[in-house]
């Protein structure tokens, strides 16, 4: 009996391993040569959990495309194949991984967790594509949200599928503007381009829309290197702040909200990413009605299509710690598949031209690419943390017993903002 149980456990482990192998190994017999996609992301180090969450999302999206036969080129049907390149959260390592990805034959590079990395990749890809047009690559960005990436640094070869920081902040500001009890706000973020952009825009929008709110704290901290946020939480509480606004993500957010709980901070958290990766469980009961998150989509968006989409993801990845699904990443892969089908080619230049007019819908969520700056436009949702089972909260997060009730939905046209991009297109 013991041997049988061990054998069953081994079979289950092997099945799980097979489900998480690079999808290049999953091509169907007789299918055409796979279209290679290279994921350049933190797969080790302090932000490995965010990288693995991205991988699960992309893997699931690619499985869906491949299940229906892959993409169509002039040579016939071809599957998509995703290869992993660990940048360890470092910019220089990301550039090394870019070279490795190009050498492997990948024509589509995917990255998002760090706007600093994204900026470096945009520059490197621009130079590479000009120098070596036979091996051009297209950059699909799912999470790097510094506004500069589709403004001053906009590139024909770069497409952003997440709402940028100013767009997300504008959605959050709708709730902040309505909170008439709020008089004191603390701003805190990670000390790199994205974190700096969030705090800069927060101060601008507060001055414009809530000039009566005093900013009682304004600081940046090293990204991914702070192990103890108690000193920061102590300052937040001592400042008399009634709310904190932060763009922190990954462990930098989880540790911050844990420290705030430990010092009995009783204010609200207005966040970009407070809806997962340990943050709800870290805040616990103290977060009910106080943690606010903005996203392109939330599991409790009140439609039957949305609920079914979320249930499908949870069936594919049933472990509570794997519960972090991004609608935008699903739409990104759908847009890529659509562009390849329309181009009937995986040639990066032809696909990029088709991506400029991408218009995709999944589970009732529609998004389209703005050709002028390559910013994807989609609805946004703002949610407030509540107990699982409360009205509007049929789903919790990561088995924590807490979920996010959607309190505001912003249409794609209302979420859109202007841009300063001067796009240079290849002739």
TrEMBL record:
This is Branched-chain amino acid ABC transporter substrate-binding protein. Residues 34-386 form the Leucine-binding protein domain. It comes from the Bacteria. Coiled coil: none annotated. It comes from Ottowia flava. Pfam families: Peripla_BP_6 (PF13458). Keywords: Signal. Belongs to the leucine-binding protein family. Residues 1-27 form the signal peptide. InterPro entries: BCAA_transport (IPR051010), Leu-bd (IPR028081), Peripla_BP_I (IPR028082).
């Amino acid at each position: 009996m013991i041997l049988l149980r061990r054998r069953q456990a081994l079979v289950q482990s092997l099945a799980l391993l097979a489900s998480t192998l690079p999808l290049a190994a999953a091509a169907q017999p007789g299918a055409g040569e796979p279209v290679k996609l290279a994921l350049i992301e933190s797969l080790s180090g302090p932000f490995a959990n965010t990288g693995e969450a991205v991988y699960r999302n992309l893997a699931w999206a690619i499985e869906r495309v491949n299940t229906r036969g892959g993409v169509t080129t002039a040579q016939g049907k071809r599957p998509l194949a995703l290869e992993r390149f660990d940048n360890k959260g470092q910019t220089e390592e990301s550039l090394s991984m870019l070279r490795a990805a190009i050498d492997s034959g990948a024509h589509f590079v995917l990255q998002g967790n760090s706007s600093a990395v994204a900026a470096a990749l945009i520059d490197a890809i621009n130079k590479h594509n000009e120098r070596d047009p036979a091996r051009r690559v297209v950059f699909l960005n799912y999470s790097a949200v510094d506004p500069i990436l589709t403004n001053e640094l906009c590139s024909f070869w770069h497409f952003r599928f997440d709402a940028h920081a100013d767009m997300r902040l504008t959605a959050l500001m709708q709730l902040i503007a309505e909170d008439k009890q709020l008089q004191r706000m603390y701003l805190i973020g990670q000390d790199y381009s994205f974190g700096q952009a969030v705090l800069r825009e927060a101060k601008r929008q507060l001055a414009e829309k809530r000039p009566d709110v005093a900013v009682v704290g304004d600081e940046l901290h090293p990204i991914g290197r702070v192990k103890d946020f108690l000193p920061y939480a102590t300052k937040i509480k001592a400042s008399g702040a009634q709310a904190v606004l932060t763009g922190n993500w990954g462990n930098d957010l989880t540790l911050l909200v844990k420290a705030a709980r430990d010092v009995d901070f009783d204010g609200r958290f207005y966040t970009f990413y407070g809806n997962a990766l340990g943050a709800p469980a870290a805040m616990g009961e103290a977060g009910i009605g106080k943690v606010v998150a903005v996203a392109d989509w939330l599991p409790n968006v009140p439609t039957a299509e949305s609920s079914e989409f979320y249930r499908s993801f949870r069936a594919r990845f049933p472990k509570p710690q794997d519960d972090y699904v991004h609608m935008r990443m699903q739409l990104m892969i759908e847009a890529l598949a659509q562009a390849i089908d329309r181009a009937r080619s995986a040639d990066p230049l032809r696909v990029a031209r088709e991506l400029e007019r991408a218009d995709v819908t999944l589970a009732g969520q529609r998004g389209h690419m703005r050709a002028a700056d390559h910013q994807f436009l989609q609805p946004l949702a703002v949610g407030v943390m509540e107990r699982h089972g409360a009205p509007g909260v049929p789903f919790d997060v990561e088995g924590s017993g807490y979920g996010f009730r959607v309190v505001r939905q912003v249409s794609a046209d209302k979420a859109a903002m202007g841009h300063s991009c001067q796009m240079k297109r290849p002739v």
